[in-house]
Specification:
The protein has about 300 residues and is an alpha/beta fold. It is built from 10 helices and 13 strands. Helix 5 crosses helix 6.
Length: about 300
Amino acid sequence: MIGAMQNPIPYQKDRPIIRIRPMKGTSCKICTHELSSEPVLEINKPDRFEAFIGVDEKSFKRTWHRCSSCAVLQAVHYNGMDEKLAQISDKYYSIDFGSLTSGSRFERIQKIPDEKSDNYHRVRRIGDFYRNWIQSFEKSSTPSILDIGGGMGVFLCKYLEVNPDFTGVMIEPDRESTTHIDSSFPFEFHNRLFSGQEEYQRDFDIVTLNKVVEHIEKPHQLLSDIQKVLNKKHGLLYIEIPDEMNVYYKPSSDNSLGSLHHHLYNPHSLNYLLESTGYTVLRIERMFEASGKISIYAFAISSSAEKQWLTH
């Protein structure tokens, strides 16, 4: 299996965190401390979303700065570009994929051989961890999984295929990426934003956020709301995000460094975010994915469940 155990990327603890003049007027959205005034990366060519809005390429820039406290990397936009990007959120899919329908793209991804599929290895990673974890508890008669920001449903379809004992629910607010999802799909689907609504407070055994958190400027409320829907004794949260190491090893045009991403994390900054929102991290690791992406994944439980786990 391709993953952290087979392809580890050691965290370079000796890499210095730049702590020089703070960046005036711009604080970290994760911990509210100051950002370094010197960028870790400056991007001078707009990506496809910024080009759609219309920018002066000669004067364009977008920079990434490290927080002096929690060590997260935060994107800084200029000339109100972040607000303009938010205004075209309903066009993201068409800008990204043009006339390619969501159904056609879904079929293409589904046909990727398992050994070359990031999604397949994700399914195995989550399923294996859950089976080892649940041995310490009384297993639910029908375990359940909630996938938030599930895109086209690729992950949840494969997860339920490999783990047929599970029931699944997927929430995705983007209508254009879900036009192909109908009653033939093996999960319950909701086309909306998640905010911990009462109808989802079903004690889910697993909640997943696959490449979602980096798109959220302030993810604290989302992570807090998820605790409302997790099983109070053994519910697992799975998060997967692009690694900050993409800054050092990928070209500036890489999707991981694109304009729709607010933050890039390392294991320390992701651990900080989870602990600050009431979670206890069980595992957090870097990995090379089958596609060549550099990512981080984490499994966590709510801190309130930690005592029950330790005294079980």
